[in-house]
Hints:
By secondary structure, the chain is of the alpha+beta class. It is 34% helix and 31% strand. The protein has helices at residues 33-46, 63-81, 132-144, 158-176, and strands spanning 3-9, 13-20, 26-29, 49-56, 90-97, 100-107, 113-117, 124-125, 128-129, 147-154.
Amino acid sequence: MRISEINRTTKETDISLSICLEGGEVSVSTGIGFFDHMLTAMFFYSGFGAKVTVKGDLYVDGHHTVEDTGIVLGKSVREALGDKKGIRRFASAYIPMDEALCFTALDFSGRAFNVYDAPMPQEMIGSYEACLTEEFMRAFAVNAGLTLHQKCIYGSNAHHITEALFKSLGVAMKDAVEVVDDKVVSTKGALE
């Protein structure tokens, strides 16, 4: 089983996160309702089992909670993947959400890089600052060792755009982490 459990405590957040790449129940509690909804959707479409509990300094704002969750989730996925033996590695997905269409392409290469092109038409989605989606994606990619490209092709509603980005990430991850071979899928023989 490809699993990982990480606990991380700082002066800004206290995070307990466990994942199983083979599936299982999903439970998310971050104190930010919309962010819980996005993570739950992402885990559902990735096929991962996950338990995420975050206590953050929400009296400041949601930034530390969202970014630190990305950090811990990235580290957890990286740990669960181990040497990445046999995974497909590359994947991409287009996801429509009403008027919005978003795209994710990724590579579990071990080389962290994030390209994010998804302007948000509204600043707030409930109590969630729309700009935090980019912060989450960057933190996740850097700590997972993931090359992650995301683009909103078009859309006029920040809720729909954000949801399409998280769902497309989930769909792409599901394909990328699938074991399809008995060796590391790299001409170098390693994904680091």
